[in-house]
Design brief:
14 helices; single chain; FAD/NAD(P)-binding domain; 19 strands; 5-stranded parallel β-sheet; alpha/beta
Length: about 425
């Protein structure tokens, strides 16, 4: 039954996690307001031509009935079905997310939250059009873009203030890499983002090389079905990868929070670390120089170029001059970078190395403030970095919020009943 007397829950963010949480809450009858541009991270901050690293079946946004999947979108849109191991194009994923929003979360408000405060009355939000509102519950699902990480040695070469011609940038700053045609570009990193960006740059006509501190590796192609006695052995079915080593991280996320804090941090960093997708190998190997075992010690602009000082494990320095440096150096959670959480509220959130510490229902130390997606990875593990983490997060958050909202509504109804008035008048 809809809980109409409660203040709407506010979901900040309209990417996969925000959409999924909102869909689950609405299915439980909880009123919700969602703020943000639908799929903006994928639409504006991922390069044209990229593919998701996760398989189509592992890239569906969770809804309560599991009816609104990538496969369902393809079928209803007249698109050919994707194979189990076929790469999912980002443009198709964006259209799928927009369709999911239209079907299950209509009325998303494409406005930004500029300030989030908290006191005994609840949460107060100020929007970019100066509207102010109050709520008892906020779900933070604002994605990863605010957490783009640029190493200090590269950040030194970025001029202060807005500079569209900056010669050092993060991979999330580019939607179209074709503008780098005929330029010398150094890509920093060894993971999927670095290797795929390098492939796209090469295919756009740039002269590109990859600089990796560690080893650049690619995953193995899918194995054919086992035959003979081997087919009797159980095979792991995990959206994060077909290995038993990965299985617990996708199927036992609720137990991850019981590990020691430092163990959790190490696993979030190392599990599913830098690795290119198997289907990317042919677009990189033999086509793009990948220089491994190199660290960037300094970057500085020299005229219209960037001069990089590199260091090998042997300690031998070298210099490299390029037109542009593209840092595919990932994301690091730091709530201060969101820019809208009021300092007193931020100080009230218990943290672990930048991650908020969360309960089993993904609630922070501030009652009513929940976190989903990458910001929850410090508690629930690396599955929170992927779309396949939306079922776990959405079910837990929606159950906790609906239970609390339902109890509050029941108390309000009881307080307004004649018997309640009679009891109070004779107490």
């Amino acid at each position: 039954m809809p809980i109409s007397d409660s203040r709407p829950v506010v979901v900040i963010g309209a990417g996969p996690y925000g959409l999924s949480v909102a869909a689950h809450l609405r299915a439980r009858g909880v009123p919700v307001r969602v703020f943000g541009e639908v799929m903006t991270t994928w639409r504006d901050h991922m390069p044209t031509g990229m593919f998701l690293k996760s398989t189509p079946v592992a890239s569906s946004i969770s809804d309560p009935a599991a009816d609104f999947t990538v496969a369902a979108f393809c079928a209803r849109s007249g698109l050919p079905p994707l194979g189990d191991d076929e790469p999912l194009p980002v443009d198709l994923f964006i259209r799928y997310g927009q369709w999911f929003a239209e079907q299950l979360v209509p009325g998303i408000e494409p406005r930004q939250v500029c300030r989030l405060e908290h006191d005994r009355r609840g949460f107060q939000l100020t929007l970019d059009d100066r509207e102010e509102l109050e709520t008892d519950t906020v779900v933070m699902a604002s994605g990863v873009i605010d957490f783009a990480y640029l190493p200090a040695e590269l950040a030194e070469a970025v001029p202060a203030g807005p500079s569209p011609a900056a010669a050092v940038s993060h991979s999330s700053q580019h939607h179209d890499l074709s503008g780098f045609a005929d330029q010398d570009v150094a890509v920093i990193g060894a993971g999927q983002s670095a290797l795929e960006s390098a492939a796209l740059l090469h295919e756009a006509g740039a002269k590109v090389q990859v600089l990796a501190r560690g080893q650049a590796r690619f995953g193995s192609p899918p194995k054919p079905p086992a035959r003979g006695p081997m087919q009797l052995l159980p095979r792991p079915h995990s959206p994060l990868g077909p290995t038993w080593r990965i299985y617990p991280f996708s199927h036992a996320a609720g137990l991850f929070r019981y590990l020691p804090a430092q163990t959790r941090l190490k696993l979030v960093k190392r599990v599913l670390g830098p690795l290119g997708a198997w289907w990317l190998r042919d677009r990189v190997e033999g086509r793009i120089p990948v220089r491994q075992g190199l660290s960037v010690r300094q970057a500085r602009q020299d005229g219209g170029k960037v001069l990089l000082t590199l260091e090998s494990p042997a300690g031998q320095p070298a210099e490299l001059e390029v037109d542009h440096v593209l840092a595919a150096t990932g994301y690091r959670v730091d709530l201060e970078k969101l820019g809208f959480i009021e300092p007193d509220l931020q100080d009230s959130i218990q943290m672990l190395a930048g991650f908020p510490c969360l309960s089993a229902s993904s609630e922070s130390s501030v009652p009513g403030l929940f976190f989903a997606g990458l910001m929850a990875a410090g508690t629930f593990g690396p599955v929170m970095r992927f779309v396949c983490g939306t079922p776990f997060a959405s079910r837990r958050i929606s159950a906790a919020v609906a239970g609390r909202t339902g109890r509050a509504a029941a108390r309000e109804e009881q307080a307004g009943s004649p018997s309640a008035d009679f009891s109070r008048s004779h107490s």
